Amino acid sequence: MKRLLYTLLIALSTVPALRAQNEMDNLLDAGTDEPDYAFATFKSFRIVNQHSIEHLKKKHLLFIISHRFDRIDKGFYDMFGLDQAQIRLGLDYGVTDWLQIGVGRSTFEKTYDGYAKVRLLRQSKGAKKMPVSLSLFGGTYINSLKDQLIPGVPEGKNIGFENRVSYATQVIIARKFNSWLSLQLTPAMVHRNYVQSAQDQNTVLALNAAGRVKLSKRIAITGEYSYLPTGQIKTTHYNAAALGVDIETGGHVFQLHLTNARPMIEKGFIAGTNDDIGDGGIYFGFNIVRTFSFDKR
Fold first, then answer.
1. What is the CB neighbour count within 10 angstroms for residue 51?
2. CB 72 within 8 Å of CB 284
3. Strand ranges (E), 122-270
4. CB burial class (10 A; 0-12, 13-18, 19+) of residue 230?
5. Is 114 in contact with 102 (CB distance < 8 Å)?
6. For 259-292, how does the pLDDT look when each residue is reduced to its tens digit (9 = 90+)?
7. Which CATH number characterizes residue 129's domain?
8. 52-89 pLDDT tens trace
């Protein structure tokens, strides 16, 4: 499985050159006809934790507030987890219609994160036919916990800045099959400069999958799953899964969900999910998304 993921990531790295050639061929063949691009494959720029294939328009700013409460199996004493929460605040910006960047701060390991997402292919029909949309994602994560609070660090030891940094690379592939069904597949690689155990691999490969089923004009059911092949992490780890509902209210999108992954960044939910759904490790959470336009046209 791991070799297959490596091969897929390497093969997809050749897409930009192929895209350029395909676009030239399409321009020569299509004349002046305009391609018919797929739109709103997903309604939001996050599915639950995973980034969706959607891109912000140029000069559009997105503010996202994400909450993950505590385990719901704690019952009424903690109001099914509502007494405790992890939070991420994020700002995303559309530099161009094909380049999106973002920054955020999470209470998970007091992490600062930044990312860039580049659109390479857009699903289309008509003059230019393309069966899927494809984007590349790269993220960086900085753990700002005090040394003595980082698991596995001996008392009094300074691990250094370089060991606080982690990275993620993803190839996001999505297709909108019809007006109500969209699916996404995302091979991913996460590199952690510091790991808790010598038996844990610094670089791990995973395969993320997600989908959306539209129920009405403003409501959709979403789901996602992150599969991490065994043998890469020896410490306690479970594959991240989530089920949610998106509710659109004009300028806002409310996303309500249940998940066993409390972290809201790639380093966390791909390589740091420690709760078993079968053992009651389920968290209620939500994302609130608001978009602002700075385009005066």
1. 25
2. yes
3. 124-126, 133-143, 165-176, 181-192, 203-214, 219-227, 240-249, 252-259
4. exposed
5. yes
6. 999 999 999 999 999 999 989 899 999 999 998 9
7. 2.40.160.40
8. 999 999 999 999 999 999 998 888 888 888 888 899 99
The domain of 210 spans 2-293
Looking at residue 85, its amino acid is: A
Backbone angles phi, psi at 37, to 5 degrees: -85, 145
With tokens 């050639």, the residue in question is 21
What are 225's strand-pairing partners? 209, 241
What residue spans of 236-287 are helical by DSSP H? 266-271
- Write the DSSP symbol of residue 33: P
User: Dihedrals φ, ψ of 15, to 5°?
Assistant: -60, -40
Give 254's pLDDT tier (boundaries 50, 70, 90): very high
Structure tokens at 28: 């020569």
Q: Which two tokens stand for residue 191?
A: 């590199």
Domain count, the chain: 1
Give the CA dihedral 35, 39, 45, 49, nearest 10 degrees. Answer: -110
Q: Which residues of 142-157 are buried (b: 16+ CB within 10 A; e: fewer)?
A: ebeeeeeebeebeeee
